[in-house]
Amino acid sequence: MDSTLLEIVACPICQGRLVFDKATQKLICHFDNVAYDINQGIPVLLAEQAIPLSNVQEED
């Protein structure tokens, strides 16, 4: 994930900072405890497609 992109993108729910998780290849919002998929290098930042972190950890 490009570090410049990480500085620009924000959580669509709270507008908080997102963190790239290398293990799951997802963008994580620790404020809302949700993750966002990255499809073909493009973050899917839609609130209705946010994945609860508890579900992300179960996928591993």
From TrEMBL:
It comes from the Bacteria. Gene3D superfamilies: 2.20.25.10. It holds the Pfam family Trm112p. HAMAP family: UPF0434 (MF_01187). Belongs to the UPF0434 family. This is UPF0434 protein O7M46_08315.
